[in-house]
Design goal:
single chain, 293 residues, mainly beta, Pnp Oxidase, Chain A, 3 domains, four-stranded antiparallel sheet, 1 helix, 23 strands, 49% strand
């Protein structure tokens, strides 16, 4: 029998549970995963006999099996970042209804102010027709304040006429648009199923399906760094999923089908499918027959 030495590679997919604890049916690619590791640990009870001159172990019983995994992803997509942040993803819809007299806040010299917080906690994006006032007095763009229309932000110019503590009012028209937003929740983990589809550099591919995994973030997110790309690390605790009253195995590992056309190794003619070294199926003209050596 040939030895199957493996240099592993492949893709990892996540299927998150819905609010009822059921799998939703759609898998998300967890792209750019440089590593995926599996750990299996057992707890055992041992005991020695007590009557001889030298104690000898006469009992060794496994009492617990704990399976876990770990991986990281360099794909900072909204879905994967939400998974890491222990939150959810939603779509914010922004209308183009003009806003008049919004109280932006109290000015600070060389300070930045966000427009549209009366519409959304994080403000608006993409604005036009911006008018900034203190009381009834309209302030001058690029003299009293600067504007970043794309982000909906203004900057208070220290040399201008807007003074520290002045209440700043804003008129503006938001652009009608949408954007994705992540908001955190109070859950300490996210549950679902993981599927690994192997594409090994060397060695036979073996795909894994884990029906019940509880994922927790593990590590830091470098919001700012010139030394390394962002990399989101996760730990996974493997459990047992129950479907229609039936407990599933914790891990399923599939070897791929491969075409094999041996010369005289098996009876019959046609196309052979090899499942492993001992079981074959041969397709004839009118049926298929399974052979096990």
């Amino acid at each position: 029998m040939a030895v199957n030495k493996v240099l592993g590679a492949g893709k990892l997919y996540w299927e998150q549970e819905d609010a009822n604890g059921d799998l939703a049916g759609s898998e998300v690619l967890l792209a750019e995963t440089p590593s995926l590791t599996q750990n299996v640990a057992t707890e055992r009870v041992t005991d020695d006999n007590s009557d001889g001159a030298i104690a000898e172990q006469d009992l060794d019983v496994a009492t617990k099996v704990v399976r876990s995994l770990a991986f990281s992803s360099k794909d900072i997509s909204t879905k994967i970042l939400a998974l890491f942040m222990l939150g959810g993803e939603s779509v914010i819809s922004q209308s183009n209804t003009p806003v008049v007299g919004e109280l932006v806040g109290k000015a600070v010299d060389n300070g930045y102010m966000q427009l549209g917080k009366s519409l959304s906690y994080t403000g608006v994006r993409a604005v036009s027709s911006v008018v900034i006032k203190v009381g009834a007095v309209t302030k001058v763009l690029d003299t009293d304040y600067a504007l970043n229309a794309a982000l909906g932000r203004i900057f208070i110019i220290e040399e201008g006429s807007i003074l520290e503590g002045d209440e700043v009012l804003a008129d503006f028209t938001p652009e009608a648009n949408t954007r994705k937003q992540i908001t955190t929740d109070q859950l300490g983990s996210k549950a679902g199923a993981l599927r690994f589809i192997a594409d090994n550099t060397v060695g036979e591919n073996k795909d894994a399906y884990i029906p019940k995994v509880t994922l927790s973030p593990n590590g830091d997110l470098n919001w700012k760094s010139r030394d390394t790309v962002q990399n989101l690390a996760f730990d996974g605790s493997i459990g047992t999923r129950v479907v229609n009253g039936v407990e599933l195995s914790q891990i399923y590992i599939d070897s791929p089908l491969s075409l094999d056309t041996p010369a005289g190794d098996l009876p019959g003619t046609g196309v052979y499918l090899v499942f492993n070294d001992d079981a074959h199926i041969v397709f004839n003209d009118d049926a298929f027959i399974t052979y096990a050596s």
